[in-house]
Amino acid sequence: MPTPESAAVAAELRGAIGKLTRRVKHEDRIPLGQVAVLGALDRDGAMTTSDLATDQRVRPQSMARAVGLLLEQGLLTRRPHPTDGRKTLLDLTEAGHAALDAERGRRAGWLAQAIEAELSAEERELLARSAGLMERLAAR
């Protein structure tokens, strides 16, 4: 059972991370669901629409709409599944990689500017050390 202190820190951290994540997402130009699809394909490689729906925890019909929009924009491409002729795999195109990189760059750029504008040198050092701690928690 966590101590009251750990529980309080956990609640504050969850709230702060949620607020920061929502603020950073304001920098996006591609809708969040579509960015999530691009990110999943970038991280995990080619997938079927069904696999993407499972990965993103959405209904297959919703994923099919998002995939259709990304295909229309030239950000995804389809190719036959190597072992199951009934399926197709989705991959990022060069334009898809570029769009995802631009989204990530806008997010990171905004955050870097906010860090420089809002935090002292000592606070920036503390935040840098804290990032490693958050990584450890996320890996648990």
Give me some keywords for this one.
140 residues, mainly alpha, two-stranded antiparallel ribbon, 71% helix
Q: How do the strands and helices of this protein lay out in sequence?
A:
Elements lengths: L3 H22 L6 H13 L4 H8 L3 H13 L3 E5 L7 E5 L1 H25 L2 H19 L1
Antiparallel strand pairs: 1-2
How would you characterize this protein structure?
This protein has 140 residues and is mainly alpha-helical. Helices cover 71% and strands 7% of the residues. It has a two-stranded antiparallel ribbon. The longest helix has 25 residues, at 94-118. The radius of gyration is 19 Å and the shape is globular. The two termini are 17 Å apart. 14% of the residues are buried.
How far is the first residue's CA from the last residue's CA? 17 Å
Quantity of strands, as a count = 2
Residues in β-strands, percent: 5-15%
Count of DSSP H/I helices: 6
Mean pLDDT: 95
Overall geometry: globular
Helix content: over 70%
Profile the largest sheet.
Answer: 2 strands, antiparallel
Which stretches are low in confidence, meaning pLDDT under 50 for 5 or more residues running? none
Query: What is Rg?
Result: 19 Å
Spatial ordering of strands, largest sheet:
1-2
* String of helices and strands: HHHHEEHH
**Category by helix and strand content:** mainly alpha
Brief rundown of the structure:
The protein is mainly α and 140 residues long. It contains 6 helices and 2 strands; from the N terminus they run ααααββαα.
